[in-house]
Design a protein that fits this description.
Order of helices and strands: EEHEHEHEHHHHEHEHH
Low-confidence stretches: none
Number of helices: 10
Helix content: 40-55%
Strand order of the largest sheet: 1-3-2-4-5-6-7
Strand content: 15-25%
Shape: globular
Mean pLDDT: 97
Bound molecules: D-malate
């Protein structure tokens, strides 16, 4: 298994306890921008681009969730951050779960936004393989056509998201599709997550149905669920105040963890 990390590009805003935000597929760190003014007085916000996206290095091959978690670990080490609050959106949530499983001691609290814990069904896996083949043949525009309307019902946001998708590198898109298709089922890891964990879901999410977080949150000992009415798969863009409120609570918990360690 290739587990050679790369140095991720990132933005660094604000001061305080560190919160690292991992974006979803096939996007980049800019999806978190609406949260910066809402949180920068309370925390230090680290926004990396995952491997291959935004300004981070593109590599060949499968982008397994564990490999992407190694990239995050390398970033924390570079920044000399012992423990962080990690917030992952959708695929970023799969990476956050892989990180929580591999490096539990590096977490102070955890946020899973519009994400899920089960592995792909055979049908979903097949769909990703077809998508990867189409992107290889015809470029990322094949995803830019229909995906934005799946991600949000807000037409203005959908057109912004379309631009983000069009900027993404086909190699990163293909590598991530393969990595998600092959990802392990994380459900069995949940009882071992000891840190306070926010599970946040948009009630109108068409990618991850709200029933998934409603079910898996019960297996996280210190997990709680926030559902956001009117939001789809992109609550950080659709309802940034609600997401910021949840993250503030995670930072408060992180402060307690630091106090007692
Ligand atoms: C994402 O938003 O990161 C992806 O839609 C997740 C997925 O396809 O499973």
């Amino acid at each position: 298994m290739n587990l050679v990390p790369v140095d991720l590009a990132y933005e660094d805003h604000g001061e305080g306890l560190p919160v690292v935000f991992l974006h979803g597929f096939p996007l980049n760190r800019t999806i978190w921008h609406p949260l910066i003014p809402l949180l920068k007085e309370q925390a230090r916000l680290i926004l990396p681009d995952l491997r291959g996206f935004g300004e981070s290095p593109v590599t060949d091959g499968v982008y397994s969730m564990r490999l992407l978690a190694e990239d995050v670990l390398q970033l924390l080490n570079r920044l000399e951050m012992e423990r962080v609050t990690l917030v992952g959106h959708s695929m970023g949530g799969y990476v956050a779960l892989a990180f929580a499983h591999a490096y539990p001691n590096r977490l102070a609290s955890l946020g899973l936004v519009s994400s899920q814990t089960e592995a792909d069904s055979p049908e979903k896996r097949q769909k990703r393989i077809v998508n990867a083949r189409n992107v290889r043949a015809r470029g990322v525009r094949v995803l830019a056509k229909n995906l934005p309307d799946q991600l949000t019902d807000d037409p203005a946001l959908a057109s912004e998201i379309k631009q983000l998708i069009l900027q993404s590198d086909p190699k990163a898109v293909i590598g991530s599709l393969q990595g998600m298709a092959e990802r392990e089922d994380a459900s069995a890891w949940l009882p071992a997550i000891r840190v306070p964990t926010l599970v946040l879901a948009g009630e109108q999410d068409k990618i991850v149905s709200v029933e998934a977080p409603q079910t898996f949150v019960r297996f996280i000992p210190r997990g709680w669920l926030v559902t956001v009415p009117g939001a789809g798969h992109m609550p950080m863009l659709e309802a940034p105040d609600r997401v910021a409120r949840g993250v503030k609570r995670l930072v408060q918990y992180a402060a307690l963890v630091e106090e007692h360690s």
